[in-house]
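Student: Send me a single protein entry containing the residue sequence and its fold in token form, directly below this note:

Tutor:
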Amino acid sequence: MYIYCKAGEVLTNPRRKARIVALQALYEADSSRHRPKEVIARLLEKKPLPEELATFALSLVDGVVQNRKRIDEIIKQFAPAFPIDQIAVIDRNLLRLAIFEVLFDNKVPVKAAINEAVELAKTFGSSSSPKFVNGVLGAVVAHYLSQESRNLGNTHDDIPAGEA
């Protein structure tokens, strides 16, 4: 399976396609106030994915939506110079997606989630997006995973509760 992005770049990672669809849904929902579940359903209807990848994309969107306030608190903590509503929509949603995968979902290795977010930032963001996304995610991971190793548990009790 090959997926083409800008400038003829070939994507060979099928899960990246699911992340792209999830990112598109989150971006549209964030910028237009459309309902995320309706957006992703429409996107998957227009360009169907294999069932496993569609399920993965849906789980990413659902996870980000369910944990958005907590995730946004984390972004505010690790990018304090950038009010959440002033971060570029694409960067904000890349961070949400990656933070969900790293701190809440725990199904993907941390390095893989960060690398995917940076690669998507290179493809869809501005020239400064990859560095910004990598910097914020690096700080998040350094903070939470160092605490996790000290606690020898994965409870995430220190993740801001916010309003779930």
